[in-house]
Amino acid sequence: MKSAVYSQFGTPEKVLAAQDTERPQPGPGQVLIRMVLSPVHNHDLMTIAGQYGFKPSLPAVPGTEAVGIVEALGEGVTHLKVGQRVAGGAEAAWAEYYLGNAARLVPVPDSVSDETACQLVSMPLSTKMLLDTIDVKAGDWIALNAANGAVGKLVAQYGRELGVNVVGIVRRAAAVDELAALGIANVVATESEDWRDKVKAITGGAPIVRGIESLGGDGASELASILADGAVLVSFGAMTGRPLKLPASDLLFRGITVKGFWGAKPPVKPERIGELLGELVRDAAAGKLQLDIEKAYPISEVAEAARASGEPGRKGKIAIRG
Length: 322
Prior knowledge:
Quinone Oxidoreductase, Chain A, domain 1; Rossmann fold; 7-stranded mixed β-sheet; 6-stranded parallel β-sheet; 11 helices
């Protein structure tokens, strides 16, 4: 079978290549799945570059989430069946066949597209857990950068359902219009010199008590500049690959607290994760949760897929197709 493989850490488009590998066999509690579609997440690319929270043994096959068709069941798996379409977290998903932990897989209703199903768990579940744990209530204001990314759109959607007010920060004015077309308001572009005044006009001067930071580098100081004294800045991602930059005065004199969030170490109990996953499946089946794929590449073009994922201005994820 064909798999995407890297034998050294480095720039993904340089170290990734398609290779022939042996089809894996499911062990106890596992399922063999024929891959249909797998998204290219930022954390996948960071792992390939050797910059993520763990480093796999090399050579390695990337891919941490997918939708596919069950081909075979390992010992002890009784709640799934061959031929069923399933989604969820995975390892080595950028291959024609991959193994999934049966306990982490969810059957996907026919009404849910492959494009949404392949992204159903990672970003949406992280967003749900984030909002579950940052201690905000209806009427509070929060702000986030990279608001035109998948997480930004999901925070706007699920924050609105909770009654939480969300201010989105983007770089380009065009992105403000793109989000408005999706029904997402209260977005400001930092290319405008008076963007902080626009934020204040949106909130009416109300304190912004939480900031969700996904860029790294100068993104942290920009976001902190609109937060209220005593607010919490949550480091959720590092899209620029740069260390957080924050003035010492924000910590010393304004009382800003910085904390991290990593979905790989869930801050909620397992039973709560199950509840949130159930909500996501129901939302997707009802059409309330729709996640776009801009373009899908075959495994043979995995290096090009990695390059395309870094292009600005995308309206959806890049994916690998089986």
